[in-house]
Input
Amino acid sequence: MAHTIETRPGGAFGTAGRASGALAKVRRFFFKTLEMLIIWRERAEQRQALGELNAHMLKDIGISASDAYREARKPFWQP
Output
């Protein structure tokens, strides 16, 4: 019966280690993407709500109508 010794870096588990590292990268990418989508949606909803406030409500929160209009018109992906 012949026995072999693994001489490559990572040993016999080198391939499994690379696979789990790739999976970790995919997970990080997925969760970062999900996080960004959630932020974009919240931002879009907040800007829509801001655009619906009347002059009295804007005065209560200390924002001018022109500032509110400018912020409400921004695309969701811009901070």
Summary: The mean pLDDT is 88.
